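Entry 14. Ran structure prediction on the chain below.
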Amino acid sequence: MYRQEIKWLWNAWKGNRLQAFINASLGLIDVAIQMAQVWAVKHAIDVASHETDGNIYVAVGIMAALICCVYATSITGVWVRNILGVKAQNRMQQRMLDRILRSEWQGKGQMHSGDMINRLETDVQHVVTFLTETIPNTISVATLFVCAFLYLCTMDWRLAIIIVIMLPTFILASKLYMRKMRALNRDVRDTDSEVQSILQETIQNRMLIKTQEKEEAMVDKLERTHSVLRRNVIKRTKFSVFSRFTLNFGFSTTYIIAFLWSAVRMSEGTLSFGGMTAFLQLVAKVQGPARSLTNLVPQFVSVFTAVERLMELEKNPLEEQGEPRKMEGTLGVRFDNVSFTYPDDEQNKEVISNLTIDFKPATCNVILGETGSGKTTLLRMILALIHPTAGNITIYNNQTEEKLSPLHRINIIYVPQGNTLMSGTIRDNLLLGSLNATEEEMQKALATACADFVNELPEGIDTEISEDGIGLSEGQAQRIAIARALLRDGSLMIFDEATSALDMDTEEQLLNNILAEQTKTVIFVTHRKQVCKYSGNIINL
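Output, structure tokens:
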């Protein structure tokens, strides 16, 4: 039933074995100390009541030493969880993010970013906790159960058998509980993702919401989703409380029977007071692990739900992987009878149909077209984000030609439309174009992009900017984004409405700067027809 999830967990566990081993070792040490404490308490009471010879101070000293050992293992466990636990969670988040970034572009069917973030935070935390703490804890709990049962058998094997006979009932109840709880837990987790998606989207678009005066509507939308979340949490809580009450009632009944049994034996003189104390401690230590194992069921439910959600992030296949295919010289791109239909389009409508076109090396090309004519789809195919459903796309120079793939993206300089700056300094944003860019190279790129204004800012290139370039005008942000792209070492340049926020004079100067050397193949996607005068190849879609 859970074969795929278990296989996924096994692969994820490979990077967390050290922490799991340390936690398991600490758990087994704690079991040994608990068994020693049972003997120490019985010994001290028997010495005090003169049932056994010995020094009461030594007996109590042994108890105190064991308590110190408990503190030591507890403190060590806290350090392991906090230090190694953070590393394990960070490592898994990085692996999942790397997998998402290397997967094929999802297009219209992609998950909401808020949902993805929720999975990368909450679900990763559940999985790491399960692998590094829950599994080791299960080992120590099972060991404690076996040790306590064997110790109890040496004192009264009949009662030990009676207590253990009840476990199959608990196991059956746990199985039924797990099946129902998994569905309830999934509902809560999915609704929680919806809440995060609404919060993230509302904060990102708060200016739009304010100008449309829809603050109340967005809060109402959040409240409706919160109501669904509350209902799901209430359902889960009711079921959990009822299940726990039923199990705990059974455990309590068993303990009362054990207490009565030991009291009768003590009254008959077949059990000492220290023996009765040890007897009850052992019963508790048999029941405690059994109770803990039933309490582990919700954790198993939670982790399987988390694994399901993380596996969904990995459903999208990886792009072609390998060494980037850097090609020398100025490149061209040729479309040969290319058609494309989005796979999730129910009408199966071709966005591009039988397109044949050649963006020749060292030429300036302009793509015009109405909204929905396929301009964006065309760019996505050049960037190898999507692949033709028919026909071929070839990238070539004067020596060779190859079928276009994601590995050729290293040859492309791309400036997307809109404000694509990230929070941090202007330098941080420029270094996204080239991590090894020198100060001189960054200044040259800024000059080419008509972004010299950066040097007039109070902190210059080290000026801090907020998310989405807040603090800069749209035109300023656009020019910095162009400078960032120019730092890439590629000979095929793509500008997607990249000058839409510039005035005509700045745009003209920018285009003159970019086209001055005639050493790159340039493709403009634009609605501004004045750009056409710079192009010898105009494509109308």
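The chain has a mean pLDDT of 80. Will compare against last week's run tomorrow.
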